[in-house]
User: Fold these one by one.
Assistant:
Number 1:
Amino acid sequence: MLHPEREQIILEDVLAALGQPVRLGVVRRLSSGEEKFCGEVVQDVPKSTMTHHWRILREAGVIHQRPEGRKLFVSLRREDLDARFPGLLDLVLRAR
Amino acid sequence: MLHPEREQIILEDVLAALGQPVRLGVVRRLSSGEEKFCGEVVQDVPKSTMTHHWRILREAGVIHQRPEGRKLFVSLRREDLDARFPGLLDLVLRAR
């Protein structure tokens, strides 16, 4: 399960990851910072579609995924994103 | 040639349009605000590929294209983007 290091996070990848309604919705639902069970973040999207979206978000450095038993937990990499691109996440979360 | 109205510009579309190296490069080269001839903004990308990238940028509301004779001119929709998503463009142009 690939997670780029903070220094490897690339602006284009983050923008592309955020630039899709389901993925932006996920990021909004994770914005409290709390780790959540993947199945509780999204309920109405087919599992195979979500596997794709989780991968895009994870490989861009936007989220962190952690397996525990049979479950997969997910959290927003807010500290890393704020360090790499100060203000970006806040701006995107605020915008409508 | 579709140009969305300011109010129709959608965050996800703008992020997706900016989230690609060639397109982000174009936006950086247009950041002075000056209108430029399309062929002068990008030289090393195949024309059919650029037609695709121009369309993505234009339909997202990031650029404005204007035909004049056989030439196509392009400019950044900075005022519209700043009005819709204050700070986003500056932040993206500043980030490395």
Note: The mean pLDDT of chain A is 95.
Number 2:
Amino acid sequence: MSEGIAHYQVGETFDDFLLITSATKSIASNGKPFLALLLRDGTGEIDARLWAAKKEDETLFKKGVIVKVNGEIGQFRNKPQLKIHHIRQAQEGDNVEVKQFVEKAPVSVEWLEEQIKEFMFEMMNANLQRLTRYFVKEYHEELFAYPAATRNHHNYVSGLAHHIVTMLRLAREIAGIYPEVDKDLLYAGIIAHDLGKIRELSDPDSPTYTTEGRLLGHISMMVEEVEKAAKELQIEGEEVMALKHLVLSHHGKNEWGSPKTPHIREAEILHYIDMLDSRIQMMNNALQKTKPGTFTERIYPLEQRSFYKPAFHSE
Amino acid sequence: MSEGIAHYQVGETFDDFLLITSATKSIASNGKPFLALLLRDGTGEIDARLWAAKKEDETLFKKGVIVKVNGEIGQFRNKPQLKIHHIRQAQEGDNVEVKQFVEKAPVSVEWLEEQIKEFMFEMMNANLQRLTRYFVKEYHEELFAYPAATRNHHNYVSGLAHHIVTMLRLAREIAGIYPEVDKDLLYAGIIAHDLGKIRELSDPDSPTYTTEGRLLGHISMMVEEVEKAAKELQIEGEEVMALKHLVLSHHGKNEWGSPKTPHIREAEILHYIDMLDSRIQMMNNALQKTKPGTFTERIYPLEQRSFYKPAFHSE
Amino acid sequence: MSEGIAHYQVGETFDDFLLITSATKSIASNGKPFLALLLRDGTGEIDARLWAAKKEDETLFKKGVIVKVNGEIGQFRNKPQLKIHHIRQAQEGDNVEVKQFVEKAPVSVEWLEEQIKEFMFEMMNANLQRLTRYFVKEYHEELFAYPAATRNHHNYVSGLAHHIVTMLRLAREIAGIYPEVDKDLLYAGIIAHDLGKIRELSDPDSPTYTTEGRLLGHISMMVEEVEKAAKELQIEGEEVMALKHLVLSHHGKNEWGSPKTPHIREAEILHYIDMLDSRIQMMNNALQKTKPGTFTERIYPLEQRSFYKPAFHSE
Amino acid sequence: MSEGIAHYQVGETFDDFLLITSATKSIASNGKPFLALLLRDGTGEIDARLWAAKKEDETLFKKGVIVKVNGEIGQFRNKPQLKIHHIRQAQEGDNVEVKQFVEKAPVSVEWLEEQIKEFMFEMMNANLQRLTRYFVKEYHEELFAYPAATRNHHNYVSGLAHHIVTMLRLAREIAGIYPEVDKDLLYAGIIAHDLGKIRELSDPDSPTYTTEGRLLGHISMMVEEVEKAAKELQIEGEEVMALKHLVLSHHGKNEWGSPKTPHIREAEILHYIDMLDSRIQMMNNALQKTKPGTFTERIYPLEQRSFYKPAFHSE
Amino acid sequence: MSEGIAHYQVGETFDDFLLITSATKSIASNGKPFLALLLRDGTGEIDARLWAAKKEDETLFKKGVIVKVNGEIGQFRNKPQLKIHHIRQAQEGDNVEVKQFVEKAPVSVEWLEEQIKEFMFEMMNANLQRLTRYFVKEYHEELFAYPAATRNHHNYVSGLAHHIVTMLRLAREIAGIYPEVDKDLLYAGIIAHDLGKIRELSDPDSPTYTTEGRLLGHISMMVEEVEKAAKELQIEGEEVMALKHLVLSHHGKNEWGSPKTPHIREAEILHYIDMLDSRIQMMNNALQKTKPGTFTERIYPLEQRSFYKPAFHSE
Amino acid sequence: MSEGIAHYQVGETFDDFLLITSATKSIASNGKPFLALLLRDGTGEIDARLWAAKKEDETLFKKGVIVKVNGEIGQFRNKPQLKIHHIRQAQEGDNVEVKQFVEKAPVSVEWLEEQIKEFMFEMMNANLQRLTRYFVKEYHEELFAYPAATRNHHNYVSGLAHHIVTMLRLAREIAGIYPEVDKDLLYAGIIAHDLGKIRELSDPDSPTYTTEGRLLGHISMMVEEVEKAAKELQIEGEEVMALKHLVLSHHGKNEWGSPKTPHIREAEILHYIDMLDSRIQMMNNALQKTKPGTFTERIYPLEQRSFYKPAFHSE
């Protein structure tokens, strides 16, 4: 395979395999039908147009299909667009499979599993540790496959576990600096807080919101899971209520979808750790694509700000 | 008993039984101790001062105690205040009990029970009807005892059931005018929407917020109850998700504590019926104490507005 | 005539009469001129393109003209678009007229008139009844022709009267449940509240905002009408002031264009009845076009929410 | 008479005539009745306490009565308070009358009348000039007696006319700098904009809000007056609509009670001139009581800001 | 030269010199490359398309180049667009230069210089006068060349000085009406308030934001300049602090980028004068292009309002 | 000395030395003068009343004086209040001095100095290191004496340095987890961000806002200091601009007083570290005074929330 779609410049010719992640039939302003495709590999994605598409093309080139594409990188409304010269479905002998074309966390699943195990091992409160262990066991497969979000940050395979582990590392250091903090409650809250996304999103590879996700939301769904776990484990201490509260309040404000604002110290800290990790990841993503001495594109969830990359950082 | 504390004017002498609903020891600006009491009977409440309180008075005159009081109605900061001349605990032979002194719904519990039964009988969808019947049976006692809120509206014994029944009556008429409305879902949502208050509030007579209530809120607690009921009744249809959504979204906005805004027609209607009934009750309460041709006091939860009572209403 | 433009699918051929409601000359990205038309019949509307339009086409195909169109239903930016093969002006013998092509209320004008008459008959307060009768008589023609808005809800011929009658039906039931409510004032307020739209909008069939409408607004204009009616009828009671207040405050909030918020009980109720009827109509419109088990499009004036149509509704 | 209540310091003895502007019967924390009075002369006002008030004192010392007071200036909650040693009603021979005790504009009524006449004389547009002349004639007495507000700024006798004249002077200069501005429309708008206060407020000397004022507001009432004037003068030009718009929109924002925001250039300018004059008056009032090198008290309607009085201003 | 691009109608042929202010290479929906140009002369600007652009066209037709263009005025998305038939670079003998094609203030630089000199001459406070003189001398060239903003108002050569002089004229009249106002401080604040734009913007002719401008803003940069001037002039009085405060607070609100809200009278007045001048200029610009009896386009920084141009203005 | 004022209960007798931090002469509602004092020692503060105060008491008992007090702990409006029986000024032989009575950071100045030295030693970028070293040297005394705020958090002697050091510790760990972060810029920003408080506040022991502080604010003043330092050290790199930006934007939002929002990654992180440290300190302060199983008082700067202290934390 070539070095990946993200590294091509306008004017270059592309000739390699890509995964179709979206396919829409449209009609051009001159009245002719075409297929608007969104294609990707592990490095990024690109819009593409298959002009003068035939009836059978619609059947061949659907979401989820791997294709061999030959075309030229053009530009449309300031974004690169691939003008397709030739396209065909991948075949048996091509030796390509879907998982080669999706983005993955920059660390291995094994390392993530190992980390979460270590953090759980640090916990002293039996009730919180048992609840946490229950979640990690019960949702093991999804936890290490799902993204943390459909876009913006940690929106890749294992993104959920990667987000959790980074937050746990921040929590460990914060608890080291402020010994009053209940590390066990904070760890349990971090591991649980976004697990509801497993029900809110359809699948790990090209996640969309489920009906249940849109009507109930991951926060409410996870509170139910905590209740279910507590019942099965026959845990009745105040820890169950506290953990539910951490899940409920982790968005920090009513306006951001938490029915309760944080009213336990560790809930407040959990919210800030969540903000820190997601914001740093978004800034890092944008800055990595930016030349020193210039600004990033506007980052929508960071209040549409652009960030400057100082030249002296590179010294 | 006399006609009730609410009907006394400044300058009159009061001599009857009252219930202490709050008692605080304070020190006057001249340095002398006194007891600040909040006293009530079925018609209303009044602030009172027991000047030059002795040590033993603190033990005698506590929250929940019925007292015989003799004193004069004065005024302090524009509010009536009872200056106590003589006070004693009620005794055996006085034949008074606490339930005589609390405010009750203006309709009987029997009528409320009958009404709810009728509305449930109208329901056609078996799943929603079974869920609703489960709640009414499971929480029967509290449902007909609890207030709908600690203050502002329906804050009296059976207030919760009174609020529900009035909302159901509104729902029946609205569904009559708009036949597209799913009456069953709307009825089920109305009956369930505030039942979580049974766990959010400590008790029906002088309710305060429980710790669980402050940390989780009646909305999240009620979603758990719906889940529990569905499990026990082995109901798995989409009705369970829809009913949870109606409960979750009934405050209408994220800022008002709903983690999801209404995304089902009946959820939106439920929110407006809830607003209508609570707002009309608050206006009626205030207007009833107001002379035609004048304005009510400011009503805090109605954006601090005063309402004018036209003179011609009385024609 | 065929079954109406709203029932055609992409790919089908259309061949029938339509009314031009908007016509704009444009230049395609390949530099060639075309006419962008908006065409409608009683069932709905569709965008259309007349490619390679000639000079005389601009004169023939203007707003308000009925045309016979032959073409194919295509799609552009996810919306259906009619690609015109052949188009001509309607002729004498075609037997079509404009009123066949505009949307009308789902009930007859006669029924609406009858209803309003009945509601007025219920009124007991002579001043309010006379004022109301004056309005219905004075603006009779427009009242039963105008829409209640240019878009979103009740935006069809007789929409204003349809909105008023439905609100009156809600008011009757609400007043039945809360006997304290002054039904006469509420009825009068409902009938008057939006009548200013008759001056705010240019005409009933394809209404646009008048200059006066944009500078003064229907609320202020209607207050003037109440004053004028009171003068002509020589009514001097407090009812005039109260009715003006209901008109002034019916948007409920300063931010929504009411110079005063509701300060009379019936004003507050009027605002909520207005919200209920307009919101239910918008949800019903959207849900009617939606399959069970899916979500509607985002509804802009409902805070851009989509609504879910449960599958079990159809049982 | 002495130099006026505003010039007394804490600890000094006061012995002179004052006007009672408010009288409230209260009960002290030691249980004894007292009268809380608000007293004023032309220089300012002071709170006063008549301890151990007798029954007949309530009848003697009411709002609107002039009294001879002897007492000492004390302090209560950081505000001066007059402790009354001796008080009596003014008598025939005292030669005092109410108008000596109210605050008046710093310019004479004659000068204000002269000014307004001159500005009207400058107007060229006959319709606007006739409308303006009508208002000045029709409401002549009130225009030169009413305050512009009950508190904050221009809250003194003739305050309304003083506010109008200062705004007209600003308008003349602004129109001189921007020749595109329609001076006639701006003058007419300034003279009309707050005239509705004549109906909104009860009387010029100790104004309170009328019922009509609270339910309709001076903006809507003045629009009616413009309509009435136009009818009587048989003026039908666009000037009537424009003048109504200037009145309607002069608060500048919906949130501030204007049902329409400014949509005519002169309406926008009118709003800013109104802001400038009221804000400068409030700052001047506060700064005049402040020593150089210190800050004023917080001014509530100026977003609760305090203003610094530089020392070098006094050079 | 012809009368200028702003005066051409759709359908007319244009044949004259224009300056390229922006040039972007794009690909049409039919896959062919074209150049999207923004062209201007002293009267206004127009979008243009050079279809079927060749490789060398990109080098010839760049930002800053003057071209001779022959083409036809078409329309695209309701805006005029020039379809280029023929285009060439301007040559020696054409006798055109860039400064003929940029917009300039409607008054001469000499007059602006004269005015500022006069206003400085009026100042009595030596410290403020010396600081002001320093700025005018130090930044003389830029002050009379820079625009006051990149768009919306005073966005032309010498716009900054034009804005300052108009504000000074308003200040002089306001200080005449309110003698308490410190005219010297107000003048100094007006001259200084926007000078930081000289560092915030790249250059006077086609200004963009500098990196420093985006990270620090003209407000903070100007405070530094005041400090630097005070140091060099060895001025230590309170005037330096006051002047910095006027600069800091001139946006009026924290939300609008002022780290402090106005806390000196002249700071508050400066903010309102700034608002008045910028708002009147924007309204005048829009109204000048509008026919009497119609509305302007929406003006984005005026809360997206359109303004009505009354017909009687023209009388 | 006794164990400190913070440990006394209502009803107990206090007899020890305290520092007067505020003294106000007032008049009781019975007309008698008294002194309202605010007294403190190293453990906390208490309101006190000296009833029947004599003229000379005002001279003896002023802010800053140490007194020997004998009295009884009472309660007024739910807060403890000391009723003074006997009071005298401290004398020579009492061996008490002011610094014994002020609150101090829970760590030593030496340790704070050592820490800051270490963090500076870690820095690699010469420009940032030199700037930082300059600040620490230039403001050495104040840096280790001033509080970080006048109330809410780190409002004690050395609070500023304590806040800085804790933030640096957080920064070190965060930079360890995200290697992309420029640790040097973040350290420099943390050390500089609040140094302007040295000019904003009057003195370290009982700080009030200076005039300059109220008019310019610590943010703008610190930007000037960075400029001054850069000039003196002849540093011209982009680091100066970046450091100014971190100072300017550290409040995170315009509404919170930052004229620019963060537009450099380290500025965003600095803002979050500042929030984390101040919020955790406020929660810890409140929770420390709270029994397990109960809620803290409302914490005003934490959006008025109360925090629950779980019982299981104590395990």
Note: Strands of chain F lie at 13-27, 33-41, 44-51, 66-76, 79-89.
